[in-house]
## 1
Amino acid sequence: MSENIYDSLKMRGFIAQTSDEESVRRMLGTPPVTFYIGFDSTATSLHAGSLVPIMVMMHLQRAGHRPVAIVGGGTSMVGDPSGKTEMREMLDESVIRDNGSAILAQLDRYLHFDGKNSMALDNADWLLPLNYVGFLRDIGKHFSVNRMLAAEAYKQRLERGLSFIEFNYQLLQAFDYLTLFRNYGCSLQMGGDDQWGNILAGVDLIRRVEGGKAEAMTFPLLTTASGAKMGKTATGAIWLDAEKLSPYDYYQYWISCDDRDVGRFLRLFTFLPIEEILKLEALKGSDAREAKRILAYEATAVTHGKAAASEAQAAAAKAFGSGSNSEEGDLNGMPSTVITREQLCAGLNPAELAAEIGLTASRGEAKRLIKQGGFYLNGKKVENLERKIGESDLTPEGILLRAGKKKYHRIRVDG
C-alpha cells in the first residue's frame, strides 16, 4: 500500500493545523483533490519565504492532486492585515496586475500550469466586478463582527489601528474559497499559519451557503535557528527570480545556513527521501559540510533547474579554493560585472566598486570590511583603503572580489 501523502508532509514538518486531521488525511489519500493556495500580488517576485507553500503544492501534485494557484489581483487592492503591524502601501491596480502576471509566470516553473491538472487564476476576475451592496447582503450576513474581532490577525492590529478596508479582507478571502468550491470543486485551502482565521472563515462560508464540506490546512511560519524570518537576510530578500538574485547567490544562501537548520531545510526544501535525509543529518564535524552542499544543490535545482544548480556549485568550488584559480571548477555561475579596459587602467577604488556592483550595501560597509580584514581581491586580503585595482590584478578568469566569508563577485574586462 502506497504512503499517504499527508503522512509524508507531516513527517517533513509542513503541517501546523488542520480543520479535521482525519478528514484531510482521508481526502489526500484518495486523489485527485483540487486544492488552492493564494499569493499576494505585492511584488514582481516571490522570495524563499514562499517556498513552503510551493513545495507542498509540488508534493501534492506529484501525488496526483490538482493545484490551483491564485494571485490576489483583487485582495491585494485591499491588503491582508494578517501578521502586519501597519497597513500595507496601497498599490495601483496596474502595478498589482503586472505583479500578479510575473508571479504566475514564476509559479509556472514549479507547477507547469496546463489548465486541467494544474491551474492559475487571478481573484480580480471575480472580486473586482462585485456589486458591493449585493455582496454585503449575500456574503456579509454570514460573518459575525464579534468573531472576526476575536481573530488573532485583527486583535493584533486593533491598538495600532485597523482600517475598514482591511477589515473586509476576510470576507474577500472566504469568497475566493466559495467561488473555487462552486466553479472548480476545490475542497482544500492551505496557507501560512497566520491565515488560519481567514481560511476557516471560507470553510464556514461554504458550509453556510452551499451546505458543503471543505477543509483547511496551514503551514508553520518558519524562522531560522538564529531567529531570522525565512527568506530574509541582513542584505535583503532571497528572491526566487534569477534577475533579482543570481542562482549563485541563491546557492550560497542555502550552503551558508546554520548547522542547526540543515536537517529541517532538507526535509522542507528538497525532494530527497527521508531515509537519505536521516543519513545526512547524522554527519558530524567537517563531514556535515557535505549535507549543506547537497541541500544547496537540491534547493537551487528546484527553483533554477539542475543546470544552474550545477553551475553554481562549480563556481562555489572554484571560488572557495585558495585564491582565484587554484581549484577545478567553473566561475560562470558566479555573479559578475563587465567593465572596460579603460576603467581598469584608470584604477578602481575597491570600496566604490564593491558598492557599485552590489557586493556590499554601501561604500561605508566596504571600507569597514577592509579595515576589519574581511575584503579580498583574488584571494588576498585588501589591507589599504588607498589601494587601487588595476591591470596587474587581472587574471585569465577576470578579477575575483570577496566580501566577508561567503559573498563573491567576478569582474570581467571587455576589450
Note: The radius of gyration is 24 Å.
## 2
Amino acid sequence: MAVSDATPKPPQRDTRPPDPPDIGSQLREEPHERYRRLPTGTHGLDPEAVKRDQRERLQQAMIELIAKKGYQGVRIVDLAKLAHVSQPTFYDLYADKEDLLVSAYDQIAQRAARTIMRAYDVSADGRLLAGMSAFAELAVAEPEEMSLFVLGAFGAGAKALEHRRRSLETLEAGIRASRDGADAQDSSDLTVKAVLGGAREVIAARLREGREDELVRRSDELTAWAASYPRRLPDGLGAPATTRPPGSGNTGTQASERARRAEGRLPSGRSDMPRQVIVKSQRERIVDATAAIVAEKGLPALTIPEIAKRANVSHQTFYDIYASKRDAFLGAQKIGMHQALQITVKAYEAVEADWPRAVASGLRALIDYLASEPAHAHLSIVDTFASSPEATEIRNTALHAFAAYLGPGYELVDREVPAIAAEAIAGGIWQVLYHYVEHDCVSELPGAAPQIIYIALTPFLGPEQATRVARSPLGDRSGAAERDGA
C-alpha cells in the first residue's frame, strides 16, 4: 500500500456525479418518515418513479429486518407490511426475498465502494488514511448497512454470496489499479487482498459487538498497519494464481491419511472394541461426510439421510451423536478448527524461542493442513458465512487464538507497531486463505506460504527482514541471528 510522500500535493477537484440517495440516512429517520408512501389513486406520478420508490422502501425494510431477525427470519409478509406495499406489488418488483436481498446488497456495495474510492483517489497524499477513514466513518454512520456489506446475510443463497464476492473483488481491483508504483494486473501480489480483508475483519468485529463508535479512532491504526507494506511485493514472494472459478471442484488434491482412515467402517455386529472407540469412529465419519457434502453440493444440499449414507451409519446412530444437521455442521467446524489450531501451535512451539521462525513454521503447518483437508477447509473457511451466527462465533474464536501468537512480536521489536496489527493480520491472512479455498485452489496454497508469512511479519520486522524469514527454509535461524546481532 502507498506510503505518504514527503511533499504534499494540492487535492484534485472531484468532478464525478454525486452519490445516489443515501439509504442509510433514510433508515435513521423515524419509521413513519422512512417508509412514507406516495399518494394513492390518481396522482399523475411517473409509474417508474412509483416503482423506484417502492423498491427503495422494500430495500430499506430488508436491511432493517435482517438486522433484527436475521435473513432466515425475514418473511415477505413482514417486508410488505413494513415497507407499506402489498404482497402482489412485492412480487411485481422482485422474484423472491433473495432477489430483494441482492438488490439491497448491490446498492449498498456500490455506494460503499464509491465512497471509499472517492476518498482514496482525491489526492496522491494521504490517500490510504482517507480511504480507511471513509470506510470507518461509513460503518459508524450506517452500521446495519455496513454489517450487511462486510458480513453478508446468514442463510442467504448462492446468488447472494456470489454478489458479495463480486462486489468485494471490484473494490479490491479499484484500489489495486490506483496504487502508485504497483502493477494493477499482478495477481501474484496478495497485499491489497490482505489489507482489505484485515480492515473488514476489524470493522466487522466492532459492528457485531455494537462498538462501531471506536472505529474512527482505529482508522489511524489501520492506516499505519496497511502502510507498513511496500507498494511493490519483494522479488521471489509471488503467489500462485487462482485459475478456477469458485465452486468448480478441487482436482488433484489428496486427502490426508486421517481422512482416508476415517472412510473405513468398523465391523458390524458384536465387537470387542471399546464403546468410546466405536463412537469416535462414527463421529469422525459423520464429520467428514458433512464436510464433503457441503464442499461438493453446498450447504442447502446437506441432509441427514445424505450424511448417514455417506458416513455409513444408521439414522439412529446419527441422532445419538448429533441432534440435527445444524449441529453436525457446527461439530465439523469445531473439529476442523481445533485440528488446524492444534497443528499450528505444535509447529509454532517447536521453535518458539525464535519468534519470527515460529510464526513461519506455524503458518506453513496450517497451510499444509488445509491443503490436505480440502473439504474441511471449505466448510470452516468459506461455508461459515452462509451458515449461522454460531458458526461465525466459532470462526471468530479461532481467529483470536491465531492472532494471540502474533502478540509476542510487540515486545520483541524496537519499531512502533499499531495495536490493531495482530487482529488485522489474522483477518488479512484469513481472507487470503478464503480466496484460495473459494476458488477450489487449496492445493496451490503451499505456494503462497512465503507471501503469507511476509504479510504476517512485515508490520513487526519491516519488509526486508520479513522477506528473508519468508524465503528461508525452516532450519535456517537467520532471523534470530539478525536480532541477536550475530
Note: The chain has two domains: 23-227, 235-419+434-486.
## 3
Amino acid sequence: MTENIDSTNAELTPEPQTKKRRTKLLIGLGAIVTASALSTAAYWVFYGSHFVSTDNAYAAVEIAQITPSISGTIEEVFVTDTQSVKKNDLLVVIDPKDAKIALAQAEAELGRATRRVKAFVANDTGLTAQVAAREAEEKSAVAKLSSAQADYDRAKIDLTRREALKASGSVSGDEITRAQNAFESAKANLTAARAAVAQATANRSATLGSKEANAVLIAGVNEENNPEVALARARLEQAQLDLERTMIRAPIAGVVAKRQVQLGQRVQAGMPLMTIVPVQNMHVDANFKEVQLEKVRVGQPATIYADIYGDTVVYHGKVQGISGGSGAAFSAIPAQNATGNWIKVVQRLPVRISLDPAELEKNPLKVGLSMSVKIDTRNH
C-alpha cells in the first residue's frame, strides 16, 4: 500500500529539469518582448516620430483656361482632347474678315487725323497774318473816323454861322441849304465811320479768337504726339491687336482637356474653349491633420507614391507651402461651430508638395490622381 502511494506521487511531481526549461522559456519570451518594446520605442523616438504621412493627397496643377479676347466665328480648330501642345502652338482661328476691315478703317482714320493736325499747323500761320490784317483794318477805320469827325465838326460850324446870318440877309437861302446838306452828309459819314471801326474791331477779335482756338489744338505738341493723332494711333494698335487675337495660341505647354469649341461656332469674348493642363508642372496637395503639422516647415523633403504606379515608383519632393486655412473654412457652406450642437472634428490643412521635374518626365501624373505622402520633419 505505501509503495503504491509513493509511486503515484512520483508520477505527479514534475521533474526539476522540466521546470528549469519552462523558466528559461518564459525568461526568453520576456526578454524578446522587452527587446521588441525597447526597439520599437527607440525607433519611434529617434526616427519614426520625425515623419508624418497621409494618403489623403492628390496630384494637382494650375491649369490654363483658353478663352477668346474677341467675338467671332470659329474658322479652324487644330487640337483635340488629350493632345500634347507646346507653348505658342496654334489652337484655334477665328474668322479674321471683320478684324481686317476694322484695321483698314483705323489706318484710314490715322491718316485723316495726321492730315487734320498738319492743317492746324498751317492754319496757325495764316491766322497770324489775318490777325495782323484785321489790326491794320481797325487802324484805318479809326483814322477814317477821325477824318469824318473833323468833317462833321466843320460842317456843323459852317451851318451854325450861316443860320446866325440868315436874319440879317447876309447869306442866301441857297447857301444855307448847301450848308445844311453838307452837315447832314458829314453826319452820315461820321456814323458810317463809327460803324466801320466797330466792325473792324469785331473782325480783329474774331480772327484773334480763331487763332487762339487753333493754337490750343497744337500747343506743346508736334504732329506725332498730338492727342488727335495719338488717339487714332491707339485705335489702329487696338485693331492690329484684335486681328492678332483671331489666332489663339497655347500660353503654356501641356495636354489639351475639356475642349468645347467646334468648327463654325459663334463665340463671345471670355467664353471657355478648352483647358491646357501643364503636366510637367504637377505638384501634390496633401491634406494633413492639424495635429500632424507641428513640425512641418517649408523646404522639408518628402517621399511620394502614386496609386497608379504603386510602390515601384518613388517621387521625391519638398514642402512648398501650407494653406492659410482648412478645407472647412473655405467650403461653400462653412461649419456652424457657434451652435449648441457642437462636436469637435480634427481639421485638415492642405500642404503643397513640389515634385522633381525629371521624375515627373519619366513617370507622368494626371490631375486628381491619388497619392501617398511622407514628410521628413527632422530639420524643423
Note: Helices lie at 2-12, 16-46, 97-166, 173-218, 227-244, 357-362.
